[in-house]
Structure formats: structure tokens, C-alpha cells
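User: Show me a protein chain along with its predicted structure.
Assistant: Here is one chain, sequence first, then C-alpha cells.
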Amino acid sequence: MPNLSGLPIHQTPLMLKIALTARETRPALRKVCDFLLRYPLSSATLTIDTIARRAESSTAAVNRLANAMGMNGFTGLHNALVDNLLGMLAPQEHIATEILRRPRTRFCIEQQVNLTRSNLDGVVNLNCNEIFDRVVDQLVAAPHVYIVGFGSSFYLAGLAAASLSTVCATATALNVEGGAEVAAYRLATVAPGDVLLAIALPPYSSDTMMLAQWARSRGATVHGITDSPASPLCEIAHSTLFAPPIHPILPNSKVGVLTLLEAIIATVSQASAPAIENKRLAIDQLMQRNRSLSALGTPVQQSSLDKAIA
């Protein structure tokens, strides 16, 4: 059974009921419970056959679970999952309905702010501090950090790499001009201990998935930022952070991803501050020493300064 501690999205009445049932029911039904708990949002969009297959169980087990929970078969369970999903997405659904009802009314700042607030709430509800801290700790400790994102995530990945490079000297952007071929060339030296941060919003780029899979096969740690547990990146990444991209007009809202990136960069900067300050002091001391030696006419040992800067 998945660890639900610290995940607000699993504190809804339906998810708590499924979690309780999982502890008390038979193994076949427990598999279904585990799947629903792992994918609380995307499961609302799946058929009974798909849930049974992905849970490695059976349609009969899905029906028995629904009956055991007093939901009168899969129809009742599916309706409960949909209600749970809409409860998480209510503000976006309201604005989307409003736009459909009054198509000639212009989209306004107030609606954007409400959408932003809802997507930011989604960032809080879909993530836990334990996973966030794990991502940050491994970014700080990694010998090399790579960032990738194609398609709708191209510029987000570039922003992440540019910002991380100021606090993490080994941060490298893979998505540059030249496309996936150049990115693969840059990732060719990835090794165990390195970290790849992959960003993927719908429509998911196959190039991002390919490079993430390659990095994992080479022993690197892969962390993902994506929209939901239904993303194919979840099957590749060791840890995943979620950013709802819902917007009734634009293909994707980037607010959630930007918030996660800013939080990561701020926390990495905070964690790296002592090491950066120690390096700065070492460089200052060497430069002062070299100035003193130069004043005395003594040859300067440039290699020592080079090592300190490196």
C-alpha cells in the first residue's frame, strides 16, 4: 500500500475510505485500492477494464471493492471518483463553464487570478515535503545535474537550467538548438550519482521520455516535474513533483511549474550557501596571497587559484 503521509489529496473522505478498506480487505481487492490511491485523479477517467488491468487484478475485484464500500458496483465507485476529482478542480471547472455559457465575454484578470490560485492550491495538494526535500538534497549532492524538457516545456527547462546554474555549478541544459540529437550528445556522459531533472507537460514529448529513460538506464537519478500521475514520466522518474496545468483557454498554465522551480532553486540556493561562501573566502584568501607575492616579486602559483575557482 502506498505511503499517504503528508499528501493532502489523500485526505478526502473517499481516499480515506479506500485506504481504510485496503487495510481490511482481501489481496485481490487490495490491489485495486492501491491503484486508486496511487492515481486518485486519473483513475476517475478510466474504465473498469483499464483499472483492473493496471491494478493487475480483475473487473470482478473492482466491482466487489465498490460493493464492499457500499457504492453499488463500479458505477457508484466511478461517480465517487469523478466527484473527488471535481472537488480538486472546482475553480477551473467553474470558469470553464462560465466561458462556455458566455462565449462573447472577455477573459479577465480576476479569472486568471482565480485560476492561478487554484493551480497553486493544486501544487500544495499534489506534493509532499518528503519528496520535495529528496529532490533538492539529490540536486545539491549530485556531481552533475542535467535539465531537459521539450515541446511545451522547452522554455521552462531553459529557465530552470539558467536559474540553477547560479547556485549549482554543474547544472547543464540539454534542450538547446539542435533538438534531441544534441541533447543526447550532451547526456552521453551521464553516470551513477548524476541527476536528471525532466519537465513534461501535455502533450508529452517522446524525446523527453527517451532521454529520461536513457539517464535512468545509466544509473542516474531521474526526477520529474509533470502535470498528473497519468503522465508517462511517472513510470520513469524515481521521484515526481506535480504541477496542475489547467487553463480553459491556453493549452497549459505554467504557473504551477514555475512555482515548483522557484521553490527548488530557492531551497538549493539555501542549501548550497555555506559551500559557496567557503569557496568565495578561499578564493579571496588566495587572491590576497597572490597580490602579496606579486608585490614582493615572487612568481604567483596560478594553479592554486584555478583549483579554488574550480
